[in-house]
What does this fold into?
Amino acid sequence: MKILFVHQNFPGQYLHLASHLGAIPGNEVVFITQRQNATLPGVRNIIYKPHRGITKNLHHYLVDTEAGLLNAQTVARIALDLKEAGFIPDVMLGHNGWGEIWYLKDVFPEVPLIGYFEFFYRYHGADVGFDPDENKIFDTAPRVRTKNLGNLIGLDAADYGQTPTQWQRSLYPAEYQAMMYVVHEGIDTQIVVPAPNGRLRLPDAGIELTLDDEVVTYVARNLEPYRGFQSFMRSLPAILEQRPNAQVLIVGGDEVSYGHKLPDGQTHRQRMLAELGSSLDLKRVHFLGKVPYPTYLTVLQVSRVHVYLTYPFVLSWSMLEAMAAGCLLVASKTAPVEEVIREGENGLLVDFFSPADIAARVVAVLEAGRNGYADIRRNARSTIVGKYDLKTICLPAQLNLLERALNK
It folds into this structure.
């Protein structure tokens, strides 16, 4: 079988599926991407770069659309070259977010295309307008509507859609939901496991942490408002005061993945440290930055309580991995989280905007000791094993969707 993948940040959501297909003798797997210096066994990468940048002084509503168009054109040219060389895929898969799949069907009209659709932008009911302090201007609504041009082009081009959660599917227009299948990429619960004897050394602080310690953890790709960084930071003074032995581990970079950047190159971490000042005991708050995956897993495994906060937006893999690692989650009562976490059963839910609520829940967990909330921890892992396990649930579901497309 010949399979064509497209994702600018190889392998993205296709890590496990591409690895699986690349390991099957006789398969020919080609992956078009912008990412260099990354490989998977059995997968041939083709690296591309758009032939030019965005038009200067382009209307700001259209910046994302033109960027997607430039990606789509370049990918289509590569697809034409593949076709001329005799590579005709049996099935194509690609993330729609950067426009790369838009013109694939114009090159291979008879080949089924499965598009990965992550988020349909809404003026109401999702991330926009969630923050009550957000500056509300008329420009926002037409800008958000225009931002969906790429979504609509991709939906029209694809034969099938894949999206990771029911809530994310619900954001898409009703007339397209029938073609969309909820299939999560999956969590490898044989690798992401509790580790009762786990240890994390912090050489700079001169300490080693285990589950016997009161470790509070927070993880995000980047430390920013969409993932509740401000609320988490504002909860820390009360937590540190009430639990004098608590240690806080914060994993994440200082870039901006979602939302607006701060002026003058300032980071959200700098802003929060300036705001909180001496109310934080920085000897017990450890910013680890972006860490290797094994270190990240160890952070989860020594966590006494893990805080996960998010706007109504794309659900992070880290929340599901924290649950698989047996963490006690204190998580925001927001729609994507509530699809997975049930209050008091497999996690604890808090008001996203209430540092006091977050602090109270974290302190209660720490007060309960290492063995407190044991049932909730077990249930958290059971939820992931039962619904999001890579090998028994999610990879088979991805292969079933592939088979459905092949049999069309």
